[in-house]
TrEMBL record:
Location of the region described as Disordered in the Swiss-Prot/TrEMBL record: 81-130
WD repeats: 282-315, 324-356, 365-406, 407-448, 449-490, 491-521
The protein's name in its UniProt record: Pre-mRNA processing factor 4 (PRP4)-like domain-containing protein
Coiled-coil regions, chain positions: 184-215
């Protein structure tokens, strides 16, 4: 007891965990001091009772609690956008896209802030503004009515106080200048000046109506022919009527005569052609030959060369008869007259010449602006046709040397020419892959034959009067029917370009073609 009185005694009493809601047992500690006697602790009597029901405990979640995000940094302040002043239609300067922005109350907007534009930006804006003004000027000029007659254009320029022409200025350039000038006056508001000029023109036109008609007659849309051309057309018409009548009579006689068979004649002609053989060979010149032609009786042969010399050979022995020297450039073609032994030659020196067989020069035909290609006699022998790289072909009077006709119609150089056996038509072909048929009695182009895909170099009329053969760089030969106005046959004749072709001159039963593949068929 003494020991117990000197030292406090701590007694731990267990407490039943059944009465405590928690699953762990709680321990209560009671301290006893020496001043108080220690009494025995009698455990309370717990009446028998039913064991307490402990409610189920929810399982502890393993999901971590949501984390609160850290506060975001403050957003940067957007600087004000400066908009350049926009010129309005009425001359005012606007700094915003709408008029309502100007009326909104509030602090001063960024449009009022002054800023500096770089020199490069200023130049870019000036160029853009100039391009815009030019575009508007062209649009305005496109709807203006400008006279097409060059004399009227000059008169209006004079009334507007502008130079009527500049050095080297052509008609279309002068008309465009007038159009732009009128558009400029319209855009600058000088309509009174423009209307005054128009009124003066109308007054002048009303006062001098007869003078205007005479002035228009001085500039026709067609080329007025000469008296020599009119006489030539009349002569060609008379000649062609007689030749056509004779040809038709022969055709009718063959049709009505039962003893004549065209098929048998064709077979006979083809058999004679099959018996052809190489008779002789002769070196014509130091340079390549460009053309050849037989005389009407077949006793002479003329050859042209790139050396510019034309030689005459006697047949059948091929003995040199004469040499025709006079061209300063290469000779491009040669042909005999159908009524005499005169020889016509063409050259790259832009001239054609008429020769006698003894070598004497009879006439020179000058007028083409570029080198000549081919030359051909009219069936009457009175006229000569030449083609040139100046995109024209011309008709000449053999006796006088006068140029009767300058005919345009091809978009590129004219190369080949041929005359109808009756003399009424002429056909031309060129580097534009086009063949045209012309009526010599009226001067009109009556037929344009399209089919070749490359330049046409050779052309020939058939003696029957209605077939035409052409050949060119597409290696084909086409047979055209003038009555049907279309191509009848396309002959894949050679493996290279066809340089020349000819119908058999008597009846036209066969055709001969020459090619750069070194063959004649």
């Amino acid at each position: 007891m003494a020991a117990e009185e000197e030292n406090p005694v701590s007694t731990s009493l267990p407490v039943s965990s059944a009465a405590v809601p928690d699953s762990q047992a709680l321990i209560s500690t009671i301290e006893v001091t020496p001043s108080q006697p220690v009494q025995p602790i009698i455990p309370p009597v717990i009446p028998p009772m039913v064991s307490a029901v402990v409610p189920p405990i929810a399982p502890i979640s393993t999901i971590p609690p949501p984390q609160v995000p850290a506060p975001l940094a403050p957003l940067p302040v957007r600087p004000p956008v400066f908009k350049p002043p926009v010129p309005a239609q009425n001359g005012e300067v606007r700094t915003s896209d709408s008029e309502s922005d100007r009326d909104e109350p509030g602090p001063t907007r960024a449009s009022a802030v002054e800023y500096e534009i770089s020199e490069e930006s200023r130049q870019v804006r000036e160029r853009q503004e100039k391009a815009k003004q030019d575009l508007l000027m062209k649009r305005r000029a496109a709807v203006l009515a400008v006279p097409t007659n060059d004399m009227a254009v000059r008169a209006r320029l004079r009334r507007l106080g502008e130079p009527i022409t500049f050095f080297g200025e052509r008609e279309m350039e002068r008309r465009d200048r007038l159009r732009m000038l009128m558009a400029k006056l319209d855009s600058e508001g000088q309509l009174d000046r423009l209307m005054k000029a128009l009124e003066e023109e109308e007054a002048a036109a009303t006062a001098t109506g007869a003078d205007v008609e005479e002035e228009m007659l001085q500039y026709p849309f067609y080329t007025e022919g000469s008296k020599a051309l009119l006489d030539a057309r009349v002569d060609i018409a008379k000649y062609s009527i007689a030749k056509a009548a004779k040809r038709l009579q022969q055709a009718q006689r063959r049709r009505d005569n039962p003893d004549e068979s065209i098929d048998e004649e064709i077979d006979y002609a083809l058999k004679k052609v099959e018996s052809l053989y190489l008779d002789c060979t002769e070196s014509g010149d130091d340079r390549p030959l460009s053309g050849c032609s037989y005389s009407r009786d077949g006793n002479l042969l003329a050859t042209s060369s790139l050396s510019g010399v034309v030689k005459i050979w006697s047949m059948p022995g091929l003995q040199k008869f004469s040499a025709l020297k006079g061209h300063t450039e290469r000779a491009t073609d040669v042909t005999f007259s159908p009524v005499s032994n005169h020889v016509a030659t063409s050259s790259a020196d832009r001239t054609a010449r008429l020769w006698n067989t003894d070598g004497s020069l009879l006439n020179t035909f000058q007028g083409h602006l570029d080198r000549l290609a081919r030359i051909a006699f009219h069936p009457s022998g009175k006229y000569l046709g030449t083609t040139s790289f100046d995109k024209t072909w011309r008709l000449w009077d053999v006796d006088t040397g006068v140029e009767l006709l300058l005919q345009e119609g091809h978009s590129r150089s004219v190369y080949g020419i041929a005359f109808h056996p009756d003399g009424s038509l002429a056909a031309s072909c060129g580097l534009d892959a086009l063949t045209r048929v012309w009526d010599l009695r009226t001067g009109r182009s009556i037929l344009a034959l399209e089919g070749h895909v490359k330049p046409v170099l050779g052309i020939s009329f058939s003696p029957n009067g209605y077939h035409l053969a052409t050949g060119g760089e597409d290696n084909t030969c086409r047979i055209w029917d003038l009555r049907k106005r279309k191509s009848l046959y396309v002959i894949p004749a050679h493996s290279n370009l066809i340089s020349q072709l000819k119908f058999e001159p008597q009846e036209g039963y066969f055709l001969v073609t020459g090619s750069y593949d070194m063959t004649v068929k």
